[in-house]
Specification:
It is built from ten helices and nine strands. By secondary structure, it is of the alpha+beta class. The protein folds into three domains: 3-100, Tetratricopeptide repeat domain (Serine Threonine Protein Phosphatase 5, Tetratricopeptide repeat), CATH 1.25.40; 118-187, no CATH class; 192-241 and 252-290, Alpha-Beta Plaits (2-Layer Sandwich). It has a five-stranded mixed barrel. Strands 7-8-6-9 form a four-stranded antiparallel β-sheet. It is elongated. The model is unreliable at 241-247 (pLDDT under 50).
Length: 296
C-alpha cells in the first residue's frame, strides 16, 4: 500500500470510528489507523479523549502530548494534556501547558495552589449529578466548599479534578457561572460528613448555629433550605423559572430542619451544638454519614 493509499485508508477509518457508538470498537479503529498514519493529531486527540473519560491518565497524557507536538496551537488537545498532567501530578507539564494556553499560573514546580475564583461543579455526572460550589485552585481543580450529600461519596474540602468543557450554568450574586463535570477525586479532605436534625424556630437560629460551628472550626449547611432538585435539562443547562413556581418550592419556614455538618472531630462539633442549644433550639439527632478515607 502506497503512503497516499495508507493515509486515505486512515481518513476513512477515522470517519468510521467517529460514527461508532461502541467506544471500544471506536478505540480499536483509531489505534489501527494510527499504524497506517501515526502523524494524525485529530486521531491522537480522540484516543486521548477516550482515555481521559476512562481515567487512563498515563495513556491520555501520551496521546495528547503527541497530538500537541503535531498541532501545538490546538486548544482542545492542550486542555486535555493539562488535565491528564494534573491527574498524574505532573506539575511541570501542567504548568507549561497552561502557559501555552495563555493561562497565568504562579511560579514554582509543585502543585498549583492559586485562586481562580468560585465555580459550581457536578459530582458524579453519569449518575445523580449533584451540583456543588467550590473554589478553583487551578484551571481544573476545585476545593469543594459546600457539604455534598453523603450518597455522592464526596466531602467538604475534597479537591476534585474537573473537565474543561462547561455543561450548564448556575447563578450566584447576579452572575452566571459555568458548571464543570467532575472527573475524579484528586485529594481527599479529612472532614467527616454528619447529618443532623434540629428544631429551630426562626432563620436567626440557624444563622447562630452556623456561626457557632464556624467558631469551632466546623461547617454547617442547611440542607432543608439550600438543596434544590432540578430536571436533567435544567441541571445541564440554565435552570428554568418553572422550578420557582408555586408547587415547585415551599419557602415557608419549617422548624424541623435537616442539616449537613463537616468536621474533623465529632467531639468539637458536639460541643458547638451544645453551646447553641437554648429555648426554641434543640438538636434532635446527629449521625456520621460519610467518613474520610483511611490514612495510608
Amino acid at each position: 500500500m502506497s503512503e497516499g493509499d495508507a493515509r486515505q485508508r486512515a481518513e476513512d477509518l477515522h470517519e468510521k470510528a467517529q460514527q461508532l457508538e461502541d467506544e471500544d470498537e471506536a478505540l480499536r479503529l483509531y489505534l489501527h489507523l494510527l499504524t497506517l498514519d501515526p502523524a494524525r493529531p485529530t486521531t491522537l486527540y480522540n484516543v486521548g479523549l477516550i482515555r481521559k473519560y476512562r481515567g487512563e491518565w498515563a495513556e491520555s497524557l501520551d496521546f495528547n502530548r503527541r497530538a500537541v507536538e503535531l498541532a501545538p496551537e490546538d486548544e482542545a488537545s492542550n486542555w486535555n494534556l493539562a488535565i491528564a498532567a494534573t491527574a498524574l501530578c505532573d506539575w511541570a507539564t501542567a504548568r507549561a501547558t497552561w502557559r501555552r494556553l495563555g493561562i497565568e499560573v504562579a511560579a514554582g514546580g509543585g502543585p498549583i495552589e492559586d485562586d481562580f475564583g468560585i465555580t459550581p461543579v457536578r459530582l458524579n455526572p453519569d449518575g445523580a449529578g449533584e451540583v456543588v460550589w467550590g473554589r478553583r485552585i487551578d484551571p481544573v481543580r476545585v476545593r469543594i466548599e459546600n457539604i455534598p450529600y453523603p450518597s455522592s461519596g464526596f466531602r467538604a474540602n475534597d479537591v476534585v479534578l474537573h473537565d474543561g468543557a462547561p455543561t450548564g450554568t448556575r447563578t450566584s450574586g447576579g452572575r452566571d457561572y459555568d458548571v464543570f463535570n467532575v472527573l475524579q477525586l484528586h485529594a481527599p479532605s479529612r472532614e467527616t460528613t454528619f447529618e443532623l436534625e434540629v428544631r429551630a424556630e426562626a432563620p436567626a437560629d440557624i444563622e447562630a448555629l452556623e456561626a457557632a460551628a464556624d467558631a469551632a472550626g466546623c461547617h454547617i449547611e442547611d440542607w432543608t433550605a439550600n438543596v434544590r432538585m432540578l430536571c436533567k435539562a435544567c441541571s445541564e443547562g440554565r435552570p428554568h423559572e418553572h422550578h420557582d413556581e408555586d408547587g415547585g418550592r415551599d419557602d415557608r419556614w419549617a422548624a424541623r430542619r435537616v442539616l449537613g455538618a463537616a468536621a474533623q472531630d465529632e467531639s468539637v462539633l458536639r460541643a458547638a451544638l451544645a453551646r447553641w442549644e437554648a429555648p426554641g433550639r434543640r438538636v434532635l439527632s446527629l449521625v456520621a454519614v460519610l467518613l474520610p478515607p483511611a490514612s495510608n
